């Protein structure tokens, strides 16, 4: 029992030992929770890899306990920024490709902050001196060389005090401390993640949270510095290779996807038909006379669709920003439950956060990014797509590796066979071997589905030996299956436990909106667990809902499949609502009771009904373009419109629509605006 004394965190944040260690020990022998699938890639033939599954059991009790309990329930939200360079003299906005320089500068000051204890202790939110110091946010590279990803310095808990920190972490840091971290910083407003990033940029550079840059891929110089098009990795006629992060993983990822497909990726987004839009619309940016690479013939062989905006590179998808939230789960059972129950909510939240109405300088007839990212990393061959009879490939695969979920994994009695995906493709051999190793049918099916994909990036040094104590090969496949909900087993090297990542939401223009949607999703998970909610619908309906979410103004004008009554029927609703422990298993710590919250304390998300009084970001952007004096109602978004849009977004970031300032329609109703103006 001595080995089992692994401390875990209580609701108050205090580290303690689990009270019922005997219960933990008894359940550690369940094979479905101790099996570990690791994939070894062996070079064969022409350098192609073949997956081979090796099953092992984790024999260390400490590691078992980490798998069962993990840390106490935390969550982490990832916010991604575009870095734009604005020239007021030229009245132009371009993407800045200085990601590496900005990150190096941030890293130096991060090291300075870690060495300055007095400063770090002073970095607190609010006036209460009892609130513990908060670490600086972390910044990470992303696929686009014009992107930054920011996460909190450490995960938040789910208590109300922690929820109150979400917006402030995105938005406020006390300036006195930051002046110590960043000598010479002259600011009056509270420090924000954006401000920390901005302080490491050129004076004309700004971190903004638009999903995509409106003129990425146009014929002019949309980036600074500017580079020649059609490089060896992307072979795109619209963007240079230098648009991608220079780390070898990213250009290799793009090149391998293209090589596996046997052609470039093909993204065709229906153009928005305005009164003066040429019809039929033929994308005027496409060059049909390029002969630099073999793939240049794609456009002559039908890659471009009429009445669509055409794009041909991974950058048009993976260069998109989004808002992702990862939830720490108490154990594998809670993780499996949240994975299932959050899945039907994905399309709803995608539509609610819609923010992507412009691609490559044109208004399009969709409002969200999802399908464009899906197409940008779609490595399926013509046979797997069903365009040719199966000869060299094993399956026809209905979805891209970036797609909506195709499995349910919770051992929930309410999960019916008819809810499962009728078109699910799995590797039967891998499933059999996983089940022989002790994994249950649902979980084995899930991983056997993920393993139908080939690895698309492998480092040679990782092929030298297979270490069953590491999960690197598994994570390689897991991390390149980009589903809208991701089930994340514990890494072998630490005890962070089981996690579920919620991935569909679009990034919002303001920190307030991003915090509101983040907190809303946290409260949804607490409601699911506290009230034992049942959101199950057939997976095919969720897939259909994801397509519906792409429609222009879908949140108001389209209907989504959703369960009529999610409450359990084994108990009266009143009884279930009043019981904080109605859904917990005997072996799990209790879920915190979801009690009332003072509405003025937390950022409130826009109403789920979205009755039109508060606009989505996508609708606001459309209206901004439509009312711009330079817009010719021909669907084209000019340099000047793009410049003014970026300037407006920067203004909204600062003022958040207060006092009827620009962008108020995304944050206030007319009534609220009138009341504020009156005061």
Description:
- The chain is of the alpha+beta class.
- It is built from 23 helices and 20 strands.
- Helix 14 packs across helix 15 (441-450).
- The longest helix is centred in the C-terminal third of the chain and has 21 residues, at 511-531.
- The chain starts with 7 loop residues before the first strand and ends with a helix.
What is the topology?
Layout: E1 8-9, E2 15-16, H1 21-27, H2 31-34, E3 35-44, E4 48-57, H3 61-69, E5 74-87, E6 92-96, H4 99-114, H5 117-121, E7 138-141, E8 147-151, E9 156-157, H6 160-171, H7 175-181, H8 193-198, E10 205-208, E11 223-224, H9 249-261, E12 267-270, E13 308-311, H10 315-318, E14 323-328, H11 332-342, H12 346-352, E15 358-359, E16 362-363, H13 370-376, E17 402-403, H14 428-436, H15 441-450, H16 472-479, E18 482-483, E19 485-488, E20 499-502, H17 511-531, H18 539-548, H19 554-557, H20 573-578, H21 617-627, H22 639-655, H23 670-678
Parallel strand pairs: 6-11, 17-18
Antiparallel strand pairs: 1-2, 3-4, 5-6, 5-8, 5-9, 5-10, 5-14, 7-8, 12-13, 14-20, 15-16, 19-20
Helix pairs in contact: 6-17, 12-18, 14-15
């Amino acid at each position: 029992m001595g080995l089992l004394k692994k401390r875990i965190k209580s609701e108050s944040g205090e580290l303690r030992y689990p009270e019922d260690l005997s219960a933990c020990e008894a359940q550690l022998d369940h094979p479905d929770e101790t099996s570990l699938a690791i994939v070894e890639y062996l070079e064969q033939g022409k350098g192609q890899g073949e997956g081979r599954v090796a099953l092992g059991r984790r024999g260390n009790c400490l590691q078992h306990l980490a798998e069962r309990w993990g840390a106490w329930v935390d969550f982490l939200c990832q916010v991604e920024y575009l870095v734009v360079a604005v020239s007021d003299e030229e009245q132009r906005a371009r993407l800045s490709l200085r990601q590496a320089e900005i990150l190096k500068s941030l890293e130096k000051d991060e090291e300075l902050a870690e060495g300055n204890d007095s400063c770090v202790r002073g970095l607190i939110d609010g006036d209460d001196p009892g609130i513990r110091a908060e670490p600086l946010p972390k910044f990470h590279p992303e696929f686009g060389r014009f992107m930054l990803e920011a996460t909190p310095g450490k995960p938040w808990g789910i208590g109300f005090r922690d929820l109150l920190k979400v917006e402030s972490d995105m938005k406020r840091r006390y300036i006195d401390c930051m002046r110590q971290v960043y000598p010479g910083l002259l600011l009056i407003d509270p420090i924000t993640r954006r401000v920390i990033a901005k302080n490491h940029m050129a004076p004309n550079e700004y971190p903004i949270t638009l999903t995509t840059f409106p003129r990425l891929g146009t014929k002019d110089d949309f980036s600074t510095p500017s580079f020649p098009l059609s490089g060896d990795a992307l072979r795109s006629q619209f963007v240079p290779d230098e648009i991608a992060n220079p780390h070898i993983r990213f250009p290799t990822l793009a090149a391998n996807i293209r090589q596996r497909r046997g052609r470039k990726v093909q993204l065709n987004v229906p153009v928005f038909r305005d009164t003066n839009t040429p019809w039929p619309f033929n994308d005027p940016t496409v060059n049909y006379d390029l002969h630099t690479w073999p793939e240049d013939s794609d456009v002559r062989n039908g890659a471009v669709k009429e009445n669509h905006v055409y794009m041909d590179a991974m950058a048009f998808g993976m260069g998109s920003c989004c808002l992702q939230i990862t939830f720490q789960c108490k154990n594998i059972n809670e993780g499996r439950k949240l994975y299932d129950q959050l899945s039907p909510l994905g399309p709803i939240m995608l539509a609610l956060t819609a923010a992507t109405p412009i691609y490559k300088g044109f208004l399009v007839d969709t409002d969200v990014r999802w399908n464009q990212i899906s197409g940008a990393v779609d490595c399926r061959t013509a046979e797997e797509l069903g365009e040719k009879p199966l000869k060299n490939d094993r399956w026809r695969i209905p979805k891209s590796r970036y797609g909506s979920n195709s499995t349910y994994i919770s051992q929930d009695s309410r999960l019916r066979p008819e809810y499962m995906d009728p078109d699910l493709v799995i590797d039967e051999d891998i499933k059999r071997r996983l089940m022989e190793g002790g994994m249950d049918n649902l979980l084995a099916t899930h991983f056997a589905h993920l393993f139908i994909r080939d690895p698309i990036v492998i480092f040679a040094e990782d092929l030298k030996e297979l270490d069953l104590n590491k999960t690197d090969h598994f994570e390689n496949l897991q991390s390149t299956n980009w589903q809208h909900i991701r089930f994340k087993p514990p890494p072998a090297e630490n005890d962070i436990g089981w996690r579920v990542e919620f991935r569909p939401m679009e990034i919002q223009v303001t920190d307030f909106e991003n915090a509101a949607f983040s907190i809303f999703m946290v409260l949804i998970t607490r409601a699911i667990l506290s009230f034992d909610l049942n959101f199950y619908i057939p997976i095919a309906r969720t897939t259909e809902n994801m397509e519906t979410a792409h429609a222009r103004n879908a949140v108001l004008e389209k209907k989504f499949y959703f369960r009529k009554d999610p409450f359990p029927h084994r108990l009266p609703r009143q009884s279930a609502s009043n019981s904080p422990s109605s859904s917990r298993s005997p072996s799990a710590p209790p879920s915190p009771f979801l009690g009332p919250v003072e509405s003025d304390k937390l950022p409130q998300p826009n109403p789920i009904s979205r009755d039109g009084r508060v606009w989505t970001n996508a609708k606001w952007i459309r209206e901004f373009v439509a009312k711009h004096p330079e817009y010719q109602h021909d669907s084209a978004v000019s340099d000047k419109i793009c410049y003014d849009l970026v300037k407006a977004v920067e203004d909204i970031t600062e003022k958040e629509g207060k006092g009827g300032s620009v962008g108020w329609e995304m944050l206030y109703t007319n009534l609220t605006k009138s009341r504020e103006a009156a005061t």
